[in-house]
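User: Run a structure prediction on this.
Assistant: Running it now.
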Amino acid sequence: MQLTTGSKAPEFEALNQKGETIRSKDLLGKKVVLYFYPKDDTKACTQQACDLRDNHTQLTTQGYTVIGVSPDDVKSHQKFINKYELPFMLLADTDHAIAEKFGVWQEKSMYGKKYMGIVRTTFLINEEGNITNIISKIKTAEHSKQILA
C-alpha cells in the first residue's frame, strides 16, 4: 500500500534508545516528525540528525515531537545519541517492520550491487494520526527547514 498525504499512519511498536516500548497509539494527540534514515553515525545520517538537533527548539515550538527510525539496535542508538547530544528519541527497527509498513524498505543499488535498505524519508503526522506531509527528497543539512516550510 502506497502511503500518501491524508493516509492514516500505520500502527507500530518498537524499542527506543532506553529500551522502552513506544507504540504509535501513544503518540496520538501529538504532531510527530517520523524520520527514517539508513544508519547511525554515518556522514549523511549524522548531518541530518545534527540539523534536527540544532533546530529542535524551533520544531518543538511548532508542536512537533521528533522521532528517528533506523534498523540499528538500541545500543547503537544510545551511542549515537550520546555522541551527538541528540535531544530526541530513536527507535530500533531491527527487523525493518516499521520501515516496511511505511513503504521505505526498498531495493537500493550501490556500485552496481543491489540490496534492501531504508530510503531516507520523513513523515509528518498530525494529532489524529494522519500523514500531513511526506518528504522524500531530503536535504540532510537543511532538513528542519524542509519540515518547517
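DSSP finds five helices and nine strands in the chain.
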